[in-house]
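Re: the request from the purification team.
They wanted to know what the chain is likely to look like in 3D before they choose a buffer screen. I agreed to run a prediction and write the result into the notebook, where they can find it.
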Amino acid sequence: MSHERLPNLRYDTDAKQFSMSLFSDIPTVDLPLSLEIFADNGKRELTHQDVMTWIRGRICPAGRQNINSILKELDLPEYDEFEILMHTMARCDKDELYLVIG
């Protein structure tokens, strides 16, 4: 999947809200499974809650056993989903999707 065909993740810094567009020209089967589920249900514009569900599936959970070690490694003073997402660029072992800023 080329960069121009990737889902478009947005973050409103004032409202501290995410949104995401799964462009209609991207066939559902070309989306990562974690996003394909939304598209299969006819959802191509994801709300903050939808995006948070997706993000929480890509970052370590707050209750993870060694979370303090992970936060220290990321140089974060506390658990912050947005900061963890930015540090990891949303990489996870479920697919090859990651954030591209720009």
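For the purification team: The chain has one domain: 3-88.
Please add any questions underneath this entry.
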